[in-house]
């Protein structure tokens, strides 16, 4: 998707990971819990000075931009869009590095304007300034004071792209000379990121067992299996199948320096280690998988996921009057993201076709998610939608993107790699005009500076990105003064 932003804003870009082809209570569906969001790290407080020694505002300082509510109807007025900025390395003539963290409240992501991130490394190398701008309808950047279907009609990919264009071409930035660095006067770089299995035999056998009982209408067997996981209170087998996806989403949040204490590794140990011995490639068998996985949910994972909620309130998805579906207050990222999923992206994580190994149950079909679109947005959908993903891909090129000075950085262990130009079987050419690099990293691992210290394959990708930025910026010439 970030490559589409580059097309629209006509900037030179370093972009990472996913293209548009990705086509209150605890979240009751793994698809929402697994939003492809960016990692968040804390940055120590420190004083910041410009190259000439002038004290600069703290990096957590919030700035506001009067953004158009509707780029197709400017008469509707503006709303205040939040952004953060750091110009500690900036010197006149340097680039402006722009990024949105996407489908989250941007508070806490300020490290993306520092050299703890690839954005800040580019700024440091090229004497530039880094900006983080909050996505419309996320956090406190809302055109309206609610997230009803009527308000969310203005949450589209194109409106979000147009936000970046309008910001770049009209904003007077708070740094000295910030009114004279618009595209054409200064180079702009757009950075974007985001918007397996070590235990296949164990999980495949378990999922096949559940699907077999479902196909045979063995309700008693399914109930017994749910009880083994302390999920007997779930009224619908689809919600049970969705809950079994939850352990997979812990993989997305991993980084190269994660160790045995991470939740995903605890899950792996629960399934793979028996009496202190690691399982072989065929695992320990179905009975052990059920007992071990169920015990992990009973002793560790249920409390981790649901805290003190009962199982239906936490994981159920079939009661449309639940507050999860009806809450229209702002700063509700699950609701805003789900609007985009239902209307344009079709981001449904469901079981594979027959004949393919399954780590997600085939009980989960697109209809299971489409039903939830009606739950959450009954004013917009009288029946489950047929999300126009083909139109989205056609509009933003998807895997067929071909943009000069566009750098792709992907991770071998990223669960979203199938939606990138590094997808298996795609074999997209790697060129000096549109280079494609892949590390051994996880989801957006290459965006964090420290990951390059831990993993040499990430260091290679980061170094390549910095090299291309330097080369491309050397070619830039102003077009407006």
Structure explained in plain terms:
The strands form two sheets. This protein has an eight-stranded mixed β-sheet with strand order 2-3-5-4-6-1-9-10, with helices on both faces. A two-stranded antiparallel ribbon has the order 7-8. It is of the alpha/beta class. It contains 18 helices and ten strands. A hairpin with a 2-residue loop joins strand 7 and strand 8.
Give the helix/strand layout.
Elements: H1 2-9, E1 12-17, H2 30-33, E2 63-68, E3 78-86, E4 96-99, H3 118-126, E5 129-133, H4 149-152, H5 157-170, E6 188-194, H6 200-215, H7 219-228, H8 237-243, H9 246-252, H10 263-272, E7 273-274, E8 277-278, H11 286-306, H12 311-315, H13 323-326, H14 333-345, H15 366-376, H16 389-396, E9 406-411, E10 436-439, H17 449-454, H18 456-475
Parallel strand pairs: 1-6, 1-9, 4-5, 4-6, 9-10
Antiparallel strand pairs: 2-3, 3-5, 7-8
